[in-house]
Each structure stands twice: as structure tokens, then as C-alpha cells.
């Protein structure tokens, strides 16, 4: 595992203290951020012999493409803000670019898998039946974010640092694999061979129709079998996932053209991005309870939709955090209001917590990830600080963030060790302290 330099952690501590001003909880928040950064590095991150970075999700010994990028995103904030010494930041960039090279390897092996093994040892979460079997795949649930997080992170690393060591020949192979998969899954019924079946499990852990998923009709959106929660999609076109995929394809186009010199592939990435965005406008919007226009969570191209939001990112609540929409966009604000209300069947409120949960966890469990996204998409610094303080009070006495926490009893929670959740706390705390995701971002 990886040891972060003490000089870096000291600099993080001081940056949080200075950035949070007179907050009564600034010492505790700074301590938490340092603890979580150290914990992520020492317990989940491993640099392989080939220089790539393998990152387990926490209490499961596999690497999710989505989770791993999110787990290391706080490191990019530190690089952008110039926290630590130049040598410290060089180490952080090496971890990030090593992770990207690992992403490319896995996407080339299997673009439909969501989580992978460190070696080709055929370890798996559970047995399942699909059309392709690889000893590298821990689980083969097709989720759009698996193809999105890598290109997005590569674009942000490149924009922040100019580093292109991630742009290996395998990057181009992975990019072409992403483009081919997107084209196929825009026509899932006619072109895709993918299916996923699992026996003796809950309905959310397998796909209907003999593993093909609920019926869809082509409309320009990209089909997915599973949500960012790893639960099966109710309808085949996940709207927040398509939003993030469209952005990532646009950014992939920049990388292909300006870094890899692949103009034809770049044009294809941008074409697909535009096609998805047009389809989102035509098919992703619904009428909310008050008559305003809001985003659906899923649609099927056959006239059906479902409205909910899930704390796992990409989420409707997290669209501005992902740079998919502006935080003051009227449609987003209307959607946000619906998400943070009883219109969302997975919004829960109790004496200790209120916020977005997930069908992936029991009723009345709010996810700290969702609370941090709520803060990261808010312009109210007092509210953002309140969320951090609330999360500290509801950690069940463990000192760590969890997956879901019961709104009536913080000692009841799921997953004692969940690195993505710890990293999201770091992101909100760093953001509030003026350590932003974007180069040159103005303080709120």
C-alpha cells in the first residue's frame, strides 16, 4: 500500500484550518480529512510492478472503475491547489496516471465489467451467467459510469498538469473500445450480445428477460443494465449516467485529438456526445409534481419513465458536481427540489439525518455520499459546513464514513469501511476550504 508524505498531510491540515476560518469544528474536520486521505492510501491503494495503480473499494478486495476514480479525486484537488511540495504533488500525479493506465487495461479486457481483480485469478462476488467470461472480472454488471470516469479523470489531470503519461497505445485501444460499446448499446435490442443472469438472488441483482433487461426502443440514449449502485435498471436508459457519458465522450474527443492525434476517433466521440445530449433533451425530461420540467431518472424509449434519485454518483443531484449542468440551471434546480423531497421514494428524514438513500440499502438509510453531493452542489457555505458537522455526529462512533446510516439511529449503518464515502467527505471539506476541482476556480 501507499504512504502519503507527512509534509503533504501537514500541508492539508493547515490548508483546511486556514480555509475554514472561525468554524468551531475546523480542527475536527481537518483531522478527518488527513485521516481519510491516509486511510485511503494505506488500505486501498497499491502501485503494481508495471507502475499502474490498483485501488480496492474498501471491504471488498476488488477495483470498481467508478469508485477508484472517485477515491483518488481528492488527490487531484491537492495538485490543482498546489498543496504540499512539488515532490509531494509529483507522487500524487503518478498515482492518478497509474490509475488511468489500469483503467485502460481493464476496459480493453472487458468494457462491460464494472469491477476487476488485481490479478487474473477468477475471483468473483457471486456466480453469474453472461456471454463472456474473464478471470480478470470480479463482476460483470454493465454500467455507463465504468466507461465515463476514466476519460473524465484523464481530461482533468491533463488540463490541471499537462501530464500525458497516461496516453499509452492502450489508451487509444480503450477509447475505441468505449466508442464501439456506446454505438452498440444505443441499439441494445438489435446489436448487443450482452446479458447478465444470476440465480437465487434479489431481483435487483439480475436482469429480466433472460438477462437482457427490460425492453427498450432506440432513441439516441445509451442502454445500461445496472445503475451506479450496482442494482439493475428498472428501465434501460439511465438519465444521469447518460449525462455523464455525454460529457466524458466530449472530453475523450479532446484527448484523442489533442493528445493522441487521432482526429477521426475524436470526431466520432464528439458525434456520439452530441447525439446523446440531443436525446436527453428529447426523451429525458418529464413534468414534475408542481408542473415544472425535471429530469427523469430512467426512461425506456417506449414512453415510460421513472422518477427517483439514488445517492450513488452519477446521480440527478450530482449533475453539477460532474460538470454536466450548471448549478443554477432552472431544470436542475427543479429536479434538485424534487430529489430532496418525498417525491423521491429514496429520500429519508429522521431526527439525526435527512437526505438521499438508495434501494441498494435498507429503508431509512441516508448515504453520506449523497449528503456530500448535496453540499458540493450547494452555493450556501453555512449549509455545506452544517452537512460536514452532521456527518461527523452520525458516524456511529467509528470515526469513518459509511455506506448508509439510519436516520433514527446512527449506530445502525451499512459498511464500516467504505473508501468512496471517506473520499467524498474530503471533497466537500476541501471544496469548502477553497481547494477546488477546476483549475482557476473562484472561491464560492
Description:
The chain is mainly α and 444 residues long. The protein has a single domain, classed as Alpha/alpha barrel (Glycosyltransferase), CATH 1.50.10.10. Helix content is 46%, strand content 9%. The chain has 14 helices and 17 strands. It has helices at 6-19, 26-44, 65-81, 86-109, 145-161, 169-185, 188-191, 208-211, 239-258, 263-283, 330-339, 368-376, 381-393, 419-432, and strands spanning 45-47, 53-55, 63-64, 115-116, 129-130, 137-139, 196-197, 237-238, 285-287, 293-295, 298-299, 305-306, 347-349, 354-356, 365-366, 404-406, 413-414. The strands form seven sheets. A three-stranded antiparallel beta sheet has the order 3-4-6. A hairpin with a 5-residue loop joins strand 9 and strand 10. The chain is globular, with a radius of gyration of 20 Å. The relative contact order is 0.12. The mean pLDDT is 96.
Amino acid at each position: 500500500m501507499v504512504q502519503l508524505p507527512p509534509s503533504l498531510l501537514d500541508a492539508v491540515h493547515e490548508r483546511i484550518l486556514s480555509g475554514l476560518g472561525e468554524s468551531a469544528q475546523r480542527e475536527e474536520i481537518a483531522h478527518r480529512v488527513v485521516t481519510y486521505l491516509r486511510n485511503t492510501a494505506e488500505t486501498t491503494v497499491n502501485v503494481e510492478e508495471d507502475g499502474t495503480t490498483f485501488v480496492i473499494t474498501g471491504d471488498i478486495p476488488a477495483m470498481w472503475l467508478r469508485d477508484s476514480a472517485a477515491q483518488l479525486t481528492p488527490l487531484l484537488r491537492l495538485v490543482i491547489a498546489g498543496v504540499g511540495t512539488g515532490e509531494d504533488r509529483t507522487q500524487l500525479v503518478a498515482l492518478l496516471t497509474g490509475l488511468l493506465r489500469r483503467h485502460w487495461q481493464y476496459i480493453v479486457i472487458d468494457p462491460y465489467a464494472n469491477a476487476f481483480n488485481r490479478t487474473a485469478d477468477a475471483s468473483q462476488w457471486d456466480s453469474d451467467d453472461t456471454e463472456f467470461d474473464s478471470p480478470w472480472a470480479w463482476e460483470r454488471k454493465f454500467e455507463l459510469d465504468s466507461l465515463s470516469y476514466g476519460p473524465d479523470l484523464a481530461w482533468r489531470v491533463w488540463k490541471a498538469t499537462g501530464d500525458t503519461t497516461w496516453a499509452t497505445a492502450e489508451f487509444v485501444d480503450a477509447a475505441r473500445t468505449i466508442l464501439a460499446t456506446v454505438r452498440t448499446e444505443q441499439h441494445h435490442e438489435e446489436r448487443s450480445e450482452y446479458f447478465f443472469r444470476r440465480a437465487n438472488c434479489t431481483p435487483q441483482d439480475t436482469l429480466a428477460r433472460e438477462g437482457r433487461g427490460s425492453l427498450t426502443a432506440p432513441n439516441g440514449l445509451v442502454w445500461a443494465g445496472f445503475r451506479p449502485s450496482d442494482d439493475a435498471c428498472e428501465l434501460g436508459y439511465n438519465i444521469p449516467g447518460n449525462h455523464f457519458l455525454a460529457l466524458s465522450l466530449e472530453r475523450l474527443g479532446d484527448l484523442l485529438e489533442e493528445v493522441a492525434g487521432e482526429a477521426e476517433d475524436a470526431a466520432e466521440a464528439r458525434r456520439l456526445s452530441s447525439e446523446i445530449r440531443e436525446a436527453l433533451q428529447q426523451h429525458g425530461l418529464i413534468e414534475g409534481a408542481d408542473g415544472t420540467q425535471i429530469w427523469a431518472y430512467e426512461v425506456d424509449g417506449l414512453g415510460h419513465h421513472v422518477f427517483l434519485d439514488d445517492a450513488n454518483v452519477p446521480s440527478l443531484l450530482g449533475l453539477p458536481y460532474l460538470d454536466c449542468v450548471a448549478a443554477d440551471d432552472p431544470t436542475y434546480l427543479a429536479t434538485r427540489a424534487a430529489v430532496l423531497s418525498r417525491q423521491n421514494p429514496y429520500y429519508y428524514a429522521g431526527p439525526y439525518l435527512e437526505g438521499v438513500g438508495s434501494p441498494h440499502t435498507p429503508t431509512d438509510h441516508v448515504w453520506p455520499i449523497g449528503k456530500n453531493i448535496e453540499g458540493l452542489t450547494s452555493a450556501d457555505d453555512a449549509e455545506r459546513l452544517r452537512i460536514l458537522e452532521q456527518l461527523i455526529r452520525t458516524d456511529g462512533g467509528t470515526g469513518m464514513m459509511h455506506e448508509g446510516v439510519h436516520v433514527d439511529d446512527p449506530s445502525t449503518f451499512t459498511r464500516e469501511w467504505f473508501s468512496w464515502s471517506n473520499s467524498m467527505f474530503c471533497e466537500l471539506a476541501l471544496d469548502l476550504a477553497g481547494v477546488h476541482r477546476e483549475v482557476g476556480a473562484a472561491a464560492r
